[in-house]
Inverse folding.
């Protein structure tokens, strides 16, 4: 949840109190307009202080001057934006997070006139988005709040050339911010609070935004023949669910785009039980589903002009006397059979049935699934990129571009007949695990058997969605990864 933090957009003018934030390049010079606003003596003061503090104006570097002479403010915060190359690749959301992390008191004013950079209304809106996301914290279960974590300005003023234009763009960003926070909250919730049914209820709350939500229970899934998903769910006293969310913002005859999320609310590994150390993190094994719910909120909030389907498979993987075993064979909704080699390779079983259901019922333009699917992807990509597997070059290229634009980066991984052959089974059509080698690619190969000819991409987000490296817009455990990426994909390519 985000704390009480207000952001206003005003025309450029003199700050009268609180913190004042200005930006300089690697030559230590602010823009001409800012230099005129703060005066030559303050520009000289910045240069003198920089020499004393060894501040060189590098990108993301910060220097703070307390009670600066000649200015009626408490602190002057000087933020470096680096040289020409740094400015060309500036991430405005990260910049907003950096600002939010440096201010304190009741008021801070940032003059968004940056040297050598065209600051568009979209860029300013991203600064505001980043500042809001930086303030997120999940402390609803703490009886004593961390006052240190709550420090920071309660009001941030961003001064800009055209406040009216910025406000219009920023309004659309509010839904994205809320969507990311929804995804973070879902991933952070403890598993005793958020079971499959409770998760489905969170999805149903999207109805207030005009999203049509349908919930499939055990009986409905059994009737559809979702034997793979139900095989995972049968070890838990908490029954599985599938939530189908539909946003109809495009033309009635347009095929939808579809997003599918793995929602294992807690993963013990089942009979193939995981080691105890770190198992508490397996409450986040539903981050793919959390992203889809957050994305649907973002799209509906800004009334995206697209038809969108979001589908999430919700189960708990537990090792009771009714749990499936290694050696079991399950029949999927598609009619294909899967031999269970490892019950801890459960996410692909959940996704197999949901992918088939979505392609069969909705005939989408494309399907993208998100899943904290394999530890192997972190061996390959650490926690810097999500693994991207796809049967469609155009979709993969568009995802890569959206990742570069938002900072939620993806890296395309191999997917070919060699990996598909590795999942062939002696006793069934396929097996759910082919061993350690190429583990992310063989998992993706199994999923590909359930998409038919629909353009499809699989995002393995095991390293990026939970416990991921902290940055300027995420200081918590759950990142809400994927909401901004996929909103950008839809906005750039699939709206009417």
């Amino acid at each position: 949840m985000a704390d009480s933090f207000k952001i206003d957009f005003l025309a450029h003018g003199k700050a009268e109190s609180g913190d004042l934030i200005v930006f300089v390049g690697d030559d230590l010079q602010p823009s001409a307009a800012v230099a005129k606003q703060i005066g030559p003596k303050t520009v000289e003061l910045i240069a003198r202080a920089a020499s004393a503090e060894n501040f060189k104006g590098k990108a993301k570097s910060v220097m703070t001057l307390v009670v600066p002479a000649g200015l009626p403010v408490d602190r002057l915060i000087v933020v470096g934006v680096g040289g020409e190359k740094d400015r060309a690749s500036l991430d405005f959301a990260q910049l907003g997070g950096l600002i939010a992390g440096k201010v304190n008191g009741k008021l801070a004013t940032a003059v968004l006139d940056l040297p050598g950079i065209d600051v568009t209304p979209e860029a300013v809106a991203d600064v505001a988005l980043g500042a809001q996301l930086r303030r997120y914290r999940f402390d609803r279960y703490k009886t004593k709040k961390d006052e240190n974590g709550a420090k920071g300005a309660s009001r941030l003023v961003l001064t800009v050339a055209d406040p009216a234009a910025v406000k219009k763009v920023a309004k659309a960003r509010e839904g994205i911010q809320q969507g990311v926070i929804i995804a973070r909250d879902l991933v952070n919730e403890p598993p005793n609070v958020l079971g499959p049914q409770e998760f489905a209820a969170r999805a149903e709350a999207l109805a207030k935004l005009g999203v049509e939500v349908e919930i499939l229970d055990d009986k409905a899934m059994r009737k559809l023949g979702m034997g793979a998903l139900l095989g995972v769910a049968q070890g838990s006293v908490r029954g599985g669910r599938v939530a189908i969310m539909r946003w109809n913002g495009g033309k009635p005859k347009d095929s939808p785009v579809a997003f599918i999320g793995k929602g294992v609310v807690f993963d013990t590994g089942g009979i193939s039980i995981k080691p105890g150390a770190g198992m508490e993190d397996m409450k986040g094994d539903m981050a793919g589903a959390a992203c889809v719910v957050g994305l649907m909120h973002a799209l509906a909030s800004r009334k995206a002009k697209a038809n969108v389907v979001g589908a999430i498979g919700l189960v708990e993987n537990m090792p009771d006397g009714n749990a499936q075993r290694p050696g079991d064979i399950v029949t999927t909704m598609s009619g294909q059979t899967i031999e269970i080699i490892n019950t801890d390779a459960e996410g692909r079983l959940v996704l197999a049935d949901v992918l088939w259901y979505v392609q069969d019922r909705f005939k989408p333009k494309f399907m993208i699934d998100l899943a904290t699917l394999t530890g192997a992807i972190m061996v390959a990509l650490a926690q810097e990129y999500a693994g991207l597997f796809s049967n469609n070059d155009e979709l993969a290229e568009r995802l890569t571009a959206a990742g570069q634009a938002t900072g939620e980066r993806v890296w395309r991984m191999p997917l070919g007949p060699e990996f598909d052959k590795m999942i062939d089974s002696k006793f069934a059509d396929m097996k759910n695990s082919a061993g350690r080698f190429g583990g992310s690619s063989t998992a993706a190969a199994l999923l590909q058997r359930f998409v038919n000819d629909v353009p499809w991409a699989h995002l393995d987000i095991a390293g990026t969605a939970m416990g991921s490296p902290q940055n300027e817009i995420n200081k918590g455990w759950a990142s809400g990864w994927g909401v901004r990426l996929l909103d950008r994909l839809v906005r750039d390519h699939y709206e009417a």
User: Anything to note?
Assistant: The chain has a mean pLDDT of 96. The CA atoms of residues 186 and 290 lie 6 Å apart. The first strand starts at residue 6 and ends at 11. The chain is about 35% helix and 20% strand.
